[in-house]
Structures are given as C-alpha cells and as structure tokens.
Amino acid sequence: MTMRSATHSGPLHWFMCCALLLSSGLHAATKEWRFRVYLDEREIGYHHFSLIENGSETRLTTRAELEVTVLRIPVFSYMHENTERWSNGCLESIASVTDENGDLYRVDGDAAAGGFRVTTNAGEFVLPDCISTFAYWDREFLQHKALLNSQTGEYVDVEIDYIGERLLSAGEKTLPAHQYRLEGKDLELELWYSQEGHWLALQSSLEGGRLLRYEIEQ
Question: What's the whole-model pTM score?
Fold first, then answer.
C-alpha cells in the first residue's frame, strides 16, 4: 500500500473497515483437534487440526510431524501440511505438501465447472462435483463412497460400517462413543465419535500387525 492510498483512506474509512472485520468475526467459530500419535505404545509425533467456520464457509488447516527411530536412529520421517476450503459440505479447494522419508508429494485442487480439478505428482485430472477428503473431523464424511487422499491426490473407493456404541478410553477417562470402520485400498482404520458427533480417536492397522493410534490431548 502506498502512502497516498493510506492517507486517502482517512480515519472514517479505517473505522468502517475495522467494524466490518469485527462484525464478520462475530459469526466465525474455531475448533481444534490436537492428537498425539502412537505406533503401538510408543509416541512418534503429533497431528493437529484447526477449523474456522463462518456461515456455510469452512477453512481447515492441518499439520503432522512423525518420526520413528530404532536405537535412536531415524528410520521413518513424515511431515504433512494441508489447507482446505469447504462450502455447504463440499470441498472447494485443497493445497497440501507432504514429505515422506524425503519423497515430496503435492496436491492442489479447486472446484470448477464440470467437476473438481486436481493436480498431483501423477498429473492432472477431474473428479465429480461435491467431493470430500478423509475429513475425520466431520462425521458427515462417512456418507461418501469415495474420498480424496490429501497426500497423494488419489480418489479412493471406501466401505464404511457402523460398529456400534462402545466405551473408549481417552487418557484417564472412559467415554461412550460411536465406533466406525473404514476400509479402502491399502487402508483399514477405525474411528470414534462422541454422542454429540465430536471426533475422539483413530487407529489404523499397519503391515506386520502394528497399530497406529491417534489419542486426543486432554
């Protein structure tokens, strides 16, 4: 911004802009999920989610950092950052970058006429309208039959089953929770939600019988 345009704005213009920002902020709501990540019983990192809702518009940012060591020597590292925009339950845009053991993945996508256009390491393609990522934070994503992998950009067919109401151990608490199983290509995981629909936990079965778990911070 030049000095001329700043001077031209004047105190009244500045006051009106601030009032508009404040009034729009009154309608925004922020939610956070902060998970510790475990491989079997060993803590290996974190995965954080931050959601800003403003009317029908939603903006999600996530960050994950994981590291597995053997005798204090790193054997696996993972870093993932992702930003998504949603409108009325449909993905509007995505921009993610992932570093898995030095292999870099990028996914960029936007809703457009005729479908959702995605650019990945593998190229460009068009998906159907109103798609969803693996949006664990919103239980409604379980209604979809295919989901966008935010790391690779692959559109994955999934099968989702409701297991039932179970007791979930969360830290020192035991909570009633609704349990779901989600299966897809090279994927098998379970999810737990509170009675009100809040995401509580995740676990995924890995090769070799190992278990990856997300435990929410208290």
Answer: 0.83
